[in-house]
Amino acid sequence: KAGVTQTPRYLIKTRGQQVTLSCSPISGHRSVSWYQQTPGQGLQFLFEYFSETQRNKGNFPGRFSGRQFSNSRSEMNVSTLELGDSALYLCASKGQGQSYEQYFGPGTRLTVT
Amino acid sequence: KQEVTQIPAALSVPEGENLVLNCSFTDSAIYNLQWFRQDPGKGLTSLLLIQSSQREQTSGRLNASLDKSSGRSTLYIAASQPGDSATYLCAVTRGGADGLTFGKGTHLIIQP
């Protein structure tokens, strides 16, 4: 079974621009979560989608948004980029078993200049 | 608000030693705890998951224990190898739509 895939792997953007990141979960997984990892704050939960619905959201400004498609693929969008948005963005998928074990993709490294 | 702390923040040991990484969490109302490994610039690899009703899980040279009532977990690595060098993260969740709450990690270096 293929793992979680994320595209692109690396991005360089300028302040004020917007960016869209993509995540494809493990086949059969319907839940996708997004996380931001920075050296200062560590790993922080952004939001979780299940069956095209956002079920939970972390403490991030409205510039961070996402969506999920009917095939469970998910996109995350950040508008009006700030220097502080430079981070590794990770997505994770989980199946419908009772363990709620999460499987992570390789991440997208976003650099904002 | 759940807080997860990992001690030590960094650890350097010679190859072959057994070692223990510690994780504590403030809210014992968790559904499970996961230990992950992260290599530099890479994603997270799940090592072990312990559900709240379990006391420990083992995989190869790794053993993780959970004491939910005291808010503690340990990851024991036996006979460490240079390939074990990485950052180890623990995370907890209440399950369902709840996200994972992570500690800041333990940066482990195994000296050949």
What can you tell me about this protein's structure?
Chain A has 113 residues and is mainly β. Chain A has strands spanning 5-7, 10-13, 19-24, 31-38, 42-50, 53-57, 64-68, 74-78, 87-94, 102-104, 108-112. In chain A, the strands form 2 sheets. In chain A, strands 2, 4, 5, 6, 9, 10 and 11 form a 7-stranded mixed β-sheet that branches. The mean pLDDT of chain A is 95. With 112 residues, chain B is mainly β. In chain B, a hairpin with a 4-residue loop joins β7 and β8 (72-77). The model of chain B has no long low-confidence stretch (mean pLDDT 95). Chain A binds chain B through residues 4, 6, 31, 33, 35, 42-48, 50, 55-56, 58, 88, 90, 92, 98-107, 109, and chain B through 31-32, 34, 36, 41-46, 49, 51, 89, 91, 93, 95-105.
Roughly what fraction of the amino acids of chain B lie in strands? Answer: over 45%
First-last Cα distance of chain A: 37 Å
Gross morphology of chain A is globular
Order of secondary-structure elements of chain A:
EEEEEEEEEEE
Q: Rg of chain B to the nearest angstrom?
A: 13 Å
Helix content of chain A: under 10%
Ends apart, CA distance between termini of chain B = 41 Å
Judged by helices, strands and strand pairing, the structural class of chain A is: mainly beta
- Give the uncertain stretches of chain A in residue-range form: none
Number of beta-strand segments of chain A: 11
Q: Figure out the total of helices of chain A.
A: 0
User: How would you describe the oligomerization state of the chains in this entry?
Assistant: heterodimer
Q: What are the salient characteristics of this protein?
A:
heterodimer, A: 113 residues, mainly beta, seven-stranded mixed β-sheet, four-stranded antiparallel β-sheet, B: 112 residues, six-stranded mixed β-sheet, five-stranded antiparallel β-sheet, 0% helix, globular
